[in-house]
Amino acid sequence: MPKEPLIRSEDQQDTYREERLVWSLRPRTLAEYIGQLAVAESLSVAITAARKRGEPLEHILLHSPPGLGKTTLAHIIATEMQTKITHTSGPALEKPVDIVGILSNLETGEILFIDEIHRLSHTVEEYLYSAMEDFEVSFIYGKGAFAKTLPYQLKRFTLIGATTRAGLLTPPLRDRFGMTYHLDYYSSEELVQVVNRSASILGVRIEEEAGALEIAMRSRGTPRVANRLLRRVRDYAEVKREGKITQEIADEALTREGVDKNGLDRLDSLYLRTIIDNYRGGPVGIEALAATLNEETTTLIDVVEPFLLKMGFIIRTPAGRKIGDAARAHLTSEQQRLL
Ligand code: ADE
Description:
This protein is an alpha/beta fold. The chain has 15 helices and 9 strands. The structure holds adenine.
């Protein structure tokens, strides 16, 4: 039977119309950007210094779980540097010719953004080494014994790489980034600000404290989720109520959406239940868990587990995943809440 993912990626859940809404909510400058204070401050210094010297920025690596704003930050960096950004991704660059074509079209100071950079093929990655370090690539002419390589000088560009799995980058690639930043989960207070900012852009009426806080607390520390939940609650408030988002309406709408008080969705809860019910609380290997859940291992590792680990709901041991005490307490309290 073909594998059908239960739900997921946040991006896949957005319809095309919503994708445009998502873009309209993105902050465009560092001044508009909420949270990640240390990263934003360090970037601001680097950008100001580079602009003062009239030089391109050094290459930047951004890593974090999905939805925390790597792409948003890359676009903000381009805006702040007043330069163009070209957007691609690791899996889209299959052959060296793909990357050479893009690189040779970059002008001085322009930004190349490679999302999911940990998924680059080896050959493409090897091309990047000299491009990043010496701003040079070699064109290969001809085939076999008659093949010739011709060095080609590139303009000094800035590579911004984004990854959910910094550990999968090879050391030679990792070492070629001048700046590396980790984006962490947002606090509820920061997410309240994100929700209120988005509500104001969308023209949605919301109780700025209790209403926004209810959404923030159920957003798994992730602005992308906060904005998606805000849109769902807005729909509910418009259709079922008078339109204004209160704490009570947010709670009702999100409970109907299957988002629990801590922001866990159906897959998160099923993941925890499976460890408890099928594996007696663990430890269980990730492959076995993925097979039982009929999900991709990478979805579990990249999307589901980081937040559960952060909440202490699961523990990773050399023997596999184990359920945390906090998870049992949380699932019991959710069961009682929904009675
Ligand atoms: N929307 C999504 N992420 C945001 C952020 N970090 N700051 C402001 N608005 C956002």
